[in-house]
Specification:
Elements (H helix, E strand, L loop, with lengths): L2 H19 E7 L12 E4 L30 E4 L1 E5 L10 E5 L9 E4 L5 E3 L4 E9 L7 E8 L9 E9 L5 E8 L4 E10 L5 E10 L12 H9 L4 E4 L3 H4 L22 E2 L15 E2 L5 H11 L2 E6 L22 H15 L5 H8 L10 E4 L7 H16 L4 E5 L7 H12 L4 E8 L1 H6 L13 E9 L9 H16 L4 E6 L3 E3 L10 E3 L4 E3 L1 H11 L4 E3 L1 E3 L2 E2 L9 E8 L4 E8 L5 E8 L9 E8 L18 E4 L7 E5 L3 E8 L1
Parallel strand pairs: 1-31, 2-14, 2-22, 14-17, 17-18, 18-19, 19-20, 20-21, 21-22, 23-24
Antiparallel strand pairs: 1-27, 3-6, 4-5, 5-13, 6-12, 7-12, 8-11, 8-13, 9-10, 9-12, 15-16, 24-25, 26-29, 27-28, 29-30, 30-35, 31-34, 32-33, 32-35
Helix pairs in contact: 5-6, 10-11
């Protein structure tokens, strides 16, 4: 063989090798596929990991109404302090009485520790409020309200202080604003009695003045903003297991969460006793963040509300015995709760519950469209309990879509039993949950490809990749979630909702991880999983486009080199969006071939957004919040096809504008 022939053969072989290494993706642009629901990507809120009190709910005082079973838990008292139980609020009867100690150099008062301390920021204002009276009447009394640093080496522990005059024998709300000259994540609230006249104090509260949207009974601004930045289409609340309760007495009861905040009773959090290896005996729900606030937040962040209610079954995992649950024949109060909730959300102001909503400040309806009944219940007990709810809701509110459940598992005996039952009951959506390891997510790229298109739609209501042996936030888990979500997107005709879980975790109060957003008393951080969710929601498009490789969907199947992909079209921006997850440890060359474009059609421009990390075990933290963030770059386009190189262990979103 001549040298020239040998070189030609080598060139041909190299060319064939390069060609074999390029993955040809065929994207059909002429025919639009299934419509992508506005609810496709959203949020699931559960009060776990101090997500509500001590988290999203901006109240800084723990046990503000002295209703914890240990009535002064969270408080220290000094001097002459006594507990009373005939207060002005029926559901919160306890309050404290501060009396003169009997000596001018002996002080009476209280200190509150807050939630892992009270976080305040320099030059920010904080609204202190209290219901108070002078029980004996007569001369006015005074209290001094302070924010203190108990570890201060200065002459004074207090760094912000003001006095408040109590001047009525009748209960009255008083408030004053303190401005902090320092930033302190671990301050303490201190109250001194400053006169000899006895004072009664109830519902002692401290909020940042600058809450989300300025609401007085408001939300922590940075955390609420992160929810809005996710551009959620659906907002499921108030949780999963807390809806059930460890027992029915401690289930989440929405009717206790509305009306004047001072008269909302506390509830024992279902997560208080669950994990003895991460134990928080002071974990209660003040219900200050209640259903009105959830509906209001849904409206303000542009998402559809999806409340979930008890079906009369306590947590079956914790209560295997039938006597722990409500018999089907006695479900009417629970069914009425569901009907009343719909009236609260949508009813005319002349209805009982619609009037309450209006009295709380929202005369317009919240336009509720969805309701969930039950959480992770299983076996025949669940459909037996669900059926009367379905009948009653259908009869009274035929337009409301009902969400049922497929139980706690992503497959198996209970899952296989419940799906046909949900079809029989004509549930509109079925809530699937899957907290699974890497191998599961890598094997589920085609999970919904063969689902029955005629039955209920899918709500992937709780999911996260739980790394085997490393059940915490890390990049690799987020990458596999991104890969899995290509299958959600490709099957948007059957998958109508998807929400990662859990949403929040306090760095000093968590019991479950991984989580989407971590925070301490002053700061918060978006995890890589957050960015994955945000990229899908921001670039969800309006219609699915067919994307194949060798005439097969790209699902990480054998021979696809760890690639997962989906494509959508966005009518609003006239853009084609391609999402690709490379879960392999090798770079992959990909040719994006767009079929259906006319010869004269050209791309007006393009860009690429990538999430990548050389350290698969790394994630963003409160201390280092930008360790891994999306990186955007322009996309080089030659003609109608686009050739891209996607790095190992990388999630990429390609946006091409026509």
């Amino acid at each position: 063989m001549s040298k020239k022939t040998l070189l030609a053969a080598m060139a041909l072989t190299m060319g064939m090798t390069l060609q074999a290494q390029t993955h040809d993706f065929v994207i059909q642009t002429k025919k639009l596929g299934a419509e992508i629901q506005p609810t496709m990507y959203g949020l699931f809120f559960e009060d776990i990991n101090y997500a509500a009190d001590g988290g999203l709910y901006a109240e800084l005082v723990k046990n503000r109404s002295f209703e914890f079973p240990q009535h002064l838990q969270g408080w220290k008292s000094f001097g002459k302090v006594s507990l009373q139980d005939d207060g002005p609020f029926e559901k919160n009867p306890h309050y404290v009485r501060l009396a003169y100690s009997g000596h001018p150099h002996k002080h009476t008062g209280l200190e509150n520790e807050g939630f892992f301390g009270i976080g305040v920021e320099k030059d920010k204002e904080y609204r202190f409020s209290v219901w108070a009276r002078i029980p004996d009447g007569g001369q006015a009394s005074k209290i001094r309200v302070e924010l203190i640093n108990t570890k201060s080496m200065g002459e004074r522990q207090a760094f912000a202080s003001t006095e408040l005059t109590i001047d009525s024998k009748e209960w009255k709300k008083y408030q004053v604003v303190l401005k902090s000259p320092v930033t302190d994540p671990k301050s303490t609230l201190r109250i001194f009695l400053r006169s000899q006249a006895t004072v009664d104090l109830e519902h002692i509260s401290l909020f940042p003045v600058d809450t989300w949207k300025g609401h007085e009974n408001g939300l922590r601004k940075d955390l609420a903003q992160k929810l809005a930045d996710l551009k959620p289409g659906i907002f499921r609340f108030p949780g999963g297991c807390i809806v059930e309760g460890t027992d029915l007495d401690t289930r989440y009861n929405w009717k206790n969460t509305v009306g004047p905040v001072e008269n909302r009773p506390i509830n024992e959090n279902r997560w208080q006793y669950t994990f003895d290896y991460r134990f928080y005996p002071d974990y209660y729900q003040s219900y200050g963040l209640g259903f009105y606030e959830f509906f209001q937040l849904s409206e303000e962040i542009g998402s559809e509300p999806l409340p979930v209610l008890s079906c009369g079954l306590a947590c079956q995992f914790q209560n295997p015995n039938e006597e722990a649950h409500v018999p089907v024949a006695e479900l009417q109060p629970y069914i009425q709760d569901a009907l009343d909730l719909i009236e609260f959300a949508n009813g005319d102001v002349n209805t009982t519950w619609g009037k309450l909503r209006a009295d709380m400040g929202h005369p317009e309806p919240f336009n509720l469209k969805f309701i969930g009944i039950g959480n992770e219940q299983w076996d025949k007990t669940y459909p037996e309990h669900l059926e009367p709810f379905v009948k009653a809701i259908r009869a009274a509110y035929p337009d409301i879509k009902i969400v049922g459940s497929s139980g706690p598992d992503s497959e198996g005996k209970q899952f296989d039993y419940l799906w046909p039952e949900m079809k029989r009951l004509k549930a509109d959506l079925v809530d699937e949950h899957f907290y699974r390891p890497e191998t599961w997510f890598l094997s589920q790229g085609a999970r919904y490809d063969n689902y029955d298109r005629k039955g209920p739609k899918v709500f992937a209501g709780e999911y996260a990749c739980h790394g085997k042996g490393k059940k915490w936030n890390h990049f690799h888990a987020s990458l596999l979630e991104a890969a899995f979500m290509t299958g959600l997107e490709r099957n948007a005709d059957i998958v109508h909702m998807a929400t990662y879980a859990p949403l929040f975790a306090h760095v000093e109060g968590w019991q479950w991880r991984p989580d989407l957003i971590w925070f301490d008393n002053l700061k918060s951080v978006k995890t890589v999983s957050y960015y994955v969710q945000q990229l899908y929601a921001t670039y969800k498009g309006t219609n699915v486009l067919s994307l194949t490789m060798d005439k097969k969907a790209v699902t990480g199947a054998e021979g696809q080199d760890g690639l997962f992909a989906s494509a959508v079209y966005d009518k609003a921006t006239n853009a084609v969006i391609v999402k690709i997850a490379n879960t392999s440890d090798k770079a992959q060359s990909i040719a994006l071939n767009f079929q259906g474009m006319k010869k004269k059609d050209v791309w007006a421009g393009g860009r690429c957004i990538k999430l990548s990390s050389p350290d698969l075990d790394k994630d963003n933290t409160v201390e280092n919040p930008t360790a891994i963030v999306p990186v955007e770059s322009p996309l080089t386009i030659e003609g109608q096809s686009v050739n891209v190189e996607i790095e190992p262990n990388t999630f990429a979103v390609y946006i091409l504008n026509k």
